[in-house]
Write a structure and sequence with these properties.
By secondary structure, the chain is mainly alpha-helical. The chain has seven helices and three strands; from the N terminus they run H-H-H-E-H-H-H-E-E-H. The chain has a domain of 77 residues: Arc Repressor Mutant, subunit A, CATH 1.10.10. It is elongated. It starts with 20 loop residues before the first helix and ends in a 9-residue tail after the last helix.
Length: 145
């Protein structure tokens, strides 16, 4: 007997065309140059959205905390950020085993969310955009690790 909730007897939903406000507005644009500009902007916006989603899927909650602290300050030294890493290390030793502060901060630097100036760190424009994207979309700031 097959369970009523089994995927065996449930049909896949038929694909529905995606019609957004943006694609609707293209229907009313006659000028091909204006339409091209609009489409190019839509592509850039979508690429930004995908970047933010990928970043959020990869970032640890402790790194979000560090970014929020950096956003509230002009610059912070390692001595202000390392305790955030150390707290996460103690709380989630199985996740952070073998990891270092340098590796942890490297994620933020490599994703261009944070910049380093000498011995200090500051939030980058991309980092500000990321935090704004989280707030705008109601994305939770609290994540594990």
């Amino acid at each position: 007997m097959v369970n009523a909730l089994s995927p065996v007897d449930s049909a896949a939903p038929s694909p529905q065309p995606v019609v957004t406000a943006s694609s609707q507005s293209l229907l009313h644009i006659d000028d091909p140059d204006v339409k091209t500009q609009k489409l190019e902007q839509d592509i850039r916006d979508l690429q930004d959205e995908i970047y933010m989603e990928k970043c959020y899927r990869s970032i640890y909650g402790s790194q979000i905390i560090a970014m929020k602290r950096l956003a509230a300050s002009a610059m912070l030294g390692r001595q202000h950020l390392e305790p955030i890493f150390n707290d996460a290390f103690r709380t989630y030793p199985h996740i952070y085993e073998g990891a270092s502060f340098t590796q942890w901060i490297a994620f933020l630097l490599n994703w261009k969310l944070v910049t380093q100036i000498g011995d200090f760190y500051m939030i980058a424009e991309q980092g500000k955009d990321f935090l704004a994207w989280m707030a705008r979309n109601g994305i939770p700031e609290q994540k594990l690790y």
